[in-house]
Specification:
Blueprint: H1 2-28, H2 33-60, H3 67-95, H4 104-110, H5 112-127, E1 131-133, E2 139-141, H6 146-169, H7 173-183, H8 187-198, H9 204-225, H10 236-248, E3 254-261, H11 264-271, H12 273-294, E4 297-302, E5 305-311, H13 318-336, E6 344-350, H14 357-380
Antiparallel strand pairs: 1-2, 3-5, 3-6, 4-5
Helix pairs in contact: 1-2, 1-9, 2-3, 2-9, 3-5, 3-6, 6-7, 7-9, 8-9, 11-12, 12-13
């Protein structure tokens, strides 16, 4: 009876954690496909924990439990276990912006391992593939029970590997941290599955997944505090934090660059705010590409203003970085065949260890607006 109590208590903890997560998601999460997927995953693990409790009560107590009920509970457990892993795979793809680019056929093909598990689970009634219930109404593993482990951990490990691959190429710090966090999801289910082999009284599937979901959700929410919602770049808060750290721990050759879009108000007034957002996204993508090449920190500083912090290396100069941005902006605007001009004005300061943070900001800001006024005169001429 002690085994039943411990087993049930762990599952109940999982259910409480996931209810807490669903409540937080309802309050803080916008209605995107990824939010729906995460909610579905939470519900599937709650049901998984419920079937776990039903199984242990039926298996180890005098609670009336028919053979049919035993088969039903175990079949539901197998399918929910695979489903939760598949939903995590889908969520991971959505967070990495890969899911939308998959074709309909490709999306269907990704579900084949899970559908195969469902088929084998149903066939276990006659073939005893994944599990079977013996004549004493007790659960036993089938000869292909390892398929359950392969499918569930397979989705998780693939998702983790892809998240690491994306994170290694990511140059936006908050996105990099978020993607590395996604990669850690499979660790707790794997650890608890090993614990379950050593100590069967611990239901690994529900508690491992529940703890991972809460951990990942909190990391993603923390990341959003420092991320600009429209562009996905670091926001002003992250930029200020980074700037203060660099000024406090003075780094030689640290360059602070401010950039502002020219005639952004004209774009909004004449083409609408939707087109203004598109222009901001276009600029953001160009800045992201160039700053990645220079290994520079990039943030949206507010409105149509961006800041770049870069530790000069080699023979490259701040003006070269700025020139590369301007060239890429012109090429991107031409490629997109925009009906308006996209350009930026910049100001920069090379920190010398003597200037205060305020002096650096003021000097860069002053230079930027002088260049902006000059650019406007040329464009208006």
């Amino acid at each position: 009876m002690n085994y039943v109590a411990v087993f049930s208590e762990v599952d109940i903890v999982s259910i409480i954690l996931l209810i807490y997560l669903l409540v937080r998601m309802k309050r803080n999460y916008s209605i995107h496909e990824e939010a729906k997927t995460l909610s579905l995953m939470a519900y599937s693990i709650i049901l998984l924990a419920c079937t776990d409790i039903m199984w242990v009560i039926g298996e180890y107590t005098v609670f009336p439990y028919s053979v049919e009920a035993n088969w039903t509970v175990n079949m539901a457990y197998m399918m929910l276990n695979g489903l939760s892993s598949y939903l995590w795979f889908v969520y991971n793809e959505q967070k990495l912006h890969s899911w939308a680019h998959r074709s309909r056929l490709n999306k269907i093909l990704t579900s084949v391992p899970y559908l195969a598990l469902v088929f084998m689970t149903f066939m276990s009634v006659s073939k005893k593939w994944i599990f079977y219930i013996d004549k004493n109404n007790h659960y036993n593993e089938g000869r292909y029970h390892i398929v359950l482990l392969i499918v569930t951990l397979g989705y998780l490990i693939y998702a983790a590997a892809k998240a690491v691959f994306h994170a290694r190429k990511q140059h936006i710090r908050t996105r990099k941290n978020e993607e590395f966090s996604l990669a850690t999801f499979f660790i707790l289910p794997l650890i608890f599955s090993i614990i379950h082999l050593l100590e069967p009284s611990i239901p690994y599937a529900s508690i491992g997944s529940a703890l991972s979901m809460v951990f990942i959700y909190n990391r993603v929410q923390d990341g959003r505090i420092f991320t600009d919602a429209l562009t996905g770049l670091n926001n002003r808060r992250r930029a200020d934090e980074y700037f203060d750290r660099k000024i406090e721990d003075y780094t030689p050759n640290m360059v602070f660059i401010l950039g502002d879009m020219d005639y952004f108000k004209h774009i909004n007034d004449n083409f609408g705010h939707g087109e203004g957002d598109r222009a901001l996204m276009t600029v953001s993508e160009v800045l992201k590409t160039v700053c990645s090449d220079y290994d520079a920190f990039l943030a949206r500083y507010g409105g149509d203003e961006f800041c770049i912090m870069w530790e000069m290396s080699g023979n490259k100069t701040p003006q070269q970085l700025i020139d590369d941005i301007k060239i890429c902006l012109g090429a991107e605007a031409e490629r997109l065949e925009l009906s308006y001009r996209i350009s930026m004005s910049f100001g920069y300061v090379v920190a010398d260890g003597k200037m205060t943070g305020t002096q650096i900001l003021d000097a860069a800001d002053k230079m930027m607006y002088e260049n902006k006024a000059s650019a406007h005169r040329e464009l208006d001429a």
